[in-house]
Amino acid sequence: MPFLPPEALSDERSIATAAARAITLAKGGETRAALNLALQARRRAKGLEIDLGELEALNAAAIVHMIRGDAIAAVAVAIDACDLARRTSNRTLLGHSLVSLKMSAYNLGACENVDEMLLHCIREAVELDDPAMEIRARVGLGVVLGDAGNFDAAEHEYTRALLLARRHPNATGAARITANLANLHRKRAAAHFEEGLEARALHECAEAIRAAEWACQLAFEENNTAVQIDAMAIQGCAHGLRGDMQRAHSLLRASVALGQASRCPTAVAWVLCELGRHCVETDRLAEAHDAYTKVLDMGQELRPSRKIALACAGLAEVEAKLGNVTAARRWRERSADESAQFEIARLQTRRQLQAVLAP
Hints:
This protein is mostly helical and 359 residues long. Among the domains are: 1-105, Alpha Horseshoe (Serine Threonine Protein Phosphatase 5, Tetratricopeptide repeat); 264-359, no CATH class. The chain has 17 helices and no strands. It has helices at 12-27, 31-47, 51-68, 71-87, 91-108, 114-128, 131-147, 151-167, 174-194, 198-222, 225-241, 245-261, 269-281, 285-297, 299-302, 306-321, 325-357. It is globular.
C-alpha cells in the first residue's frame, strides 16, 4: 500500500482512521504496508501536534509489530505510547498501550507480574466501558495463565472475551480468541501426555483440532490471514501430538505457504521452526534444512530473536544427523551467538520496562 499524501492525514479523525486501517491490513497479511501506514500516521500526527492521533498511531504500530512477531519493536513503540498516554492523561489509550507493552514484553520473557497488570487493565476497561480493551486484556491473561498450566482459569478468560467479541464485532475478532482456545487445548493435551493420561490427551487433541478448524473458518470470514496462519499451524501441532505426522506436516506446510503468499513472512517464523522440528524427528532432513534456512532469511526483520537461535540449533542437528561434524559445530556456535544477542536485547528491554513501569 503506497504512502498517503499529506492532505489525506490532516486531522485527528483521518489519522485515527489510518491507524485502524493499519491494524486491518496487518490482520489481512499486509504487515509491511500496515507498519508503513501506522508510522506515517504517527509522523503526520506528531508534525501536526495532534497528541490523540499520535497515540492511536503508536498503539496501532505496536499491534502490527506483535502480529509480525517482532516483540522487541512492539515493546519500544508501546513504551512511547504509554509515555504519551500518561502525559495526556488518556486512561483508555494508556490501557491499550499497557496491554501491548505487557504482552510483547512477556513474549520476550522481559517482565514479571504480567497477570496483575492485565487484571488492572480489565478493571480499567470495565470502569471505562471499553470492551476492546477488556477483550485484549482477557485474551492476554488467557495466554499467560495457559502457559503457567492454569488451564481452567485461562479457558474462563477466553470464554469471557469471546462473549464480548460477539457483542462488539468491531473489537478483537472471534477468530483470534477461538485460535487461542485451540492452542489452550493443545497445551492441555501436551500436559496430559506428560502425565501419562493418554485418553484425556487424545480428547484434548481432538478439541484442539475442532477449535482450530473453526478458527480458520472464522478467520476467513474476517479476512484475518494472521489468525488463519496460526490456527492452521495449531491444528497441525495437535495432529502431531496424537501421532499423525503426515497430517501435521501437511498443515504446517500449508500454514507457511499462506504466510508467504500473503506478504506476512515473519508471522510464520514459529511455524517454520515447528515444521523443521517435525521434519528432523521423521528424518526429512532436506525439508528441515529448508524450513530452518527460511527462518534465517528473515533475520534482517527478526533479529535479535529466539527463533533465529532456534533455527541455527535446528540446522546443527540436521548437519549432525548427516554426519557433517564441522558444519554442526559452526551452527551450534552461531546459535549460541544469536542467543547471546537476544539475551542482551532482552535485558536492555527489561531495564527500559523497569523505568517506564516504576510507580
